[in-house]
């Protein structure tokens, strides 16, 4: 396989200070432009925490269905679901699950409202605190990467962070159990992610595929790395310079797989549109309109995840074409 056929790997060792961060900014920006995907190593998130969160979710997914059903997904997208529940009225209403999709659990965990944090199940006992600790560490890392990207765009280091503030982190754990003869493992169908970017703690077992030049390619997860992808809001604010790329998740025959995505979610009130300075400086026309993040997210909840439908809807057609 040629080198350019691998998702770029970016080493964040020694990038704790501003100068260090600047030194990798160009690599990160290039990966966001050319791939929309990259892996980061030596990122500083506690490796034992990465193991613990996988174990805590595994324990949750192993609980009996009656227990998991106590946390069935609500109309705000929060909670657990599995393909067997796709006929349930509440699940049907949010339209995200079909008999073919994988089992998963999603929560927005860092909103100021402690009641929402309490939505993360108390069973297994370590889950809630682990998810909170993990989201806090990952958000700090995400904000370092965001600062590097801001500077590469010619903006102040905290410009993008302020635009999205106060950001939340949504944690989605996907469970692809072992395949048995009479039972197919669900998949996560092709989609782009709506928020700014996603940091995926991928299982050692591969199963993530990304669309690249019209073909699907599998990503080989590096141990202890995060697989990062540009999501729709970052594509829009960068006026299309950074690309949100379609991807899909699946299991791996003969091996169980758990993937945990941490979505950097803008505040619901944040307006998502091309950043004005980027247009002024180069007199480039805006390629996207603007929308409140809440509206994008509500559409997603109401209509389900399909390809790049939401970012496409914001695109402004080129006149005369
Ligand atoms: O399971 C995977 O690798 C894909 C996860 C994903 O794309 C998501 O949770 O949005
Ligand atoms: Fe995704």
UniProtKB/TrEMBL annotation:
It comes from the Eukaryota. It holds the Pfam family 2OG-FeII_Oxy. Keywords: Iron, Metal-binding, Oxidoreductase. GO terms for molecular function: metal ion binding; oxidoreductase activity. Residues 166-266 form the Fe2OG dioxygenase domain. Belongs to the iron/ascorbate-dependent oxidoreductase family. This is Fe2OG dioxygenase domain-containing protein. It comes from Marchantia polymorpha subsp. ruderalis.
